[in-house]
């Protein structure tokens, strides 16, 4: 027999799995680390990277993870992050 606590734990895990499947947070950390290293980018590229990073975080926080991954991926591409 499954206890009530076990059912709650299973339900919470099931609800969190879709968000865990995305790598938004890891991508943001990679971008932040690259920006700290002072990449050789034009002002326009730096502006675009910062904008994409901010928009990606906003999308992540709003639950729009596909949009977040796309924007963060574009920022990583500009920075040369694989």
Explain how this protein is built.
This protein is an all-alpha fold and 82 residues long. The chain is 78% helix and 0% strand. It has helices at residues 4-20, 24-36, 43-61, 65-79. Helix 2 runs antiparallel to helix 3. The longest helix has 19 residues, at 43-61.
What characteristics describe this protein?
single chain; 82 residues
Distance between the termini: 47 Å
Strand content: under 5%
Shape: elongated
Low-confidence stretches: none
Profile the largest sheet: none
User: Helix share of residues?
Assistant: over 70%
Structural class: mainly alpha
Break the fold down into its secondary structure elements and pairings:
Elements (H helix, E strand, L loop, with lengths): L3 H17 L3 H13 L6 H19 L3 H15 L3
What is this entry, summarized?
This protein is mainly α and 82 residues long.
């Amino acid at each position: 027999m499954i206890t009530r606590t076990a059912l709650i734990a299973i339900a919470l895990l099931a609800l969190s799995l879709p968000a865990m499947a995305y790598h938004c947070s890891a991508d943001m950390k990679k971008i932040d680390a690259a920006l700290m290293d002072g990449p050789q980018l034009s002002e326009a590229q730096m502006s675009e990277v910062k904008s994409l990073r901010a928009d990606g975080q906003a999308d992540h926080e709003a639950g729009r993870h596909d949009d977040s991954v796309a924007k963060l991926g574009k920022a990583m591409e500009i920075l040369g992050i694989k």
